[in-house]
Amino acid sequence: MRPVDIQRTPVLGVGVSAVNLRSAVDTAMAWIDRRERHYVTLTGVHGVIEARDDPAFRRTLNGAGLTLPDGMPLVWLSWLAGRSQVTRVYGPDFTLALSEAMARAGKSAFYYGGVPGVAERLAATLARRFPGLITAGVYCPPFRALTPAEEAHVAARINGSRADVVWVGLSTPKQERWMSLMRDRLDAPVLIGVGAAFDFLSGRVRQAPPWMQRSGLEWLYRLGQEPRRLWRRYLRNNPRFVYLVACERLGVLRVDPVEGPPAPPAEVRGPDVAPESAAAAGDPPPERESHVPLYR
């Protein structure tokens, strides 16, 4: 179910929700309280360019209950559209703010994704910081596509945990495809794809300084940290995004939004980074699960 009372700013065919951090948290908490089932995407330039090239992925983003602006260019375009209330909803900030609200209400979270050990560290970090937050469980998927039997096992594990929120850290576009694939199979009201927030909040990867985040330069900091993995994403996508948005605003380009039920997703694999031991052995790492609950 997608809400109709949240405005969206069209950017290359993607409807970016006109929200800020507080309204995004309030919306998610309302869904939890009403047991409404949605998934939430956080997207920036990379996600919009992926959606520009892939109509099925565009449909996935536009089918989300919220498509949050996790990038300053999307905030600036929202302002140009007259939506001055919009602020960046940065993945780690959203994770912390919603976890704090969930802790006050005694809600529970399940953590799905990351390389081995990251989801456990993230769950422990948030449980220490927000004592009322219940950790329903964690699951680190193998670095390959899940079989149908494994998908059923994952759904059963998450449903058995009775989690209110499932945090997903698989990176874009894997996590969005996974959420659209699993949405109807999971009882948790809200699924949220936050990607690198798993690494940032667990301490595995350092975050960019606040001034770089505010200036729209976080991509440069991340490129310096992981040049081999990210150079194509940033050095190809960023100039292309500027060019395509300029064409759209001048009226020489139109990208139609693709809405409705998500199309069957492409193969969904595990986390972006394969552990070295798994790569050396040629086999994916076994999934890591926790008993329920882990922390209270």
Labels describing this entry:
296 residues, alpha/beta, 9 strands, globular, disordered C terminus
Layout of helices and strands:
Elements: E1 8-11, E2 14-17, H1 21-34, E3 38-43, H2 45-53, H3 55-62, E4 66-69, H4 72-80, H5 91-105, E5 108-113, H6 118-129, E6 134-140, H7 148-161, E7 165-169, H8 174-182, E8 190-193, H9 197-202, H10 210-214, H11 218-225, H12 227-250, H13 276-281, E9 288-289
Parallel strand pairs: 3-4, 3-8, 5-6, 5-7, 7-8
Antiparallel strand pairs: 1-2, 6-9
Helix pairs in contact: 1-5, 2-3, 2-12, 11-12
Figure out the total of helices: 13
Summing up helix and strand content along with how strands pair, one would put the structural category as alpha/beta
How are the strands of the largest sheet arranged?
A: 4-3-8-7-5-6-9
Count the strands? 9
Give the CA-CA distance, first to last residue: 31 Å
Residue fraction in strands: 5-15%
Shape: globular
Residue share in helix: 40-55%
Q: How many structural domains?
A: 1
The ordered H/E elements are EEHEHHEHHEHEHEHEHHHHHE
In angstroms, what is the radius of gyration? 18 Å
Low-confidence stretches: 273-286, 288-296
Largest sheet report: 7 strands, mixed
Mean pLDDT: 86
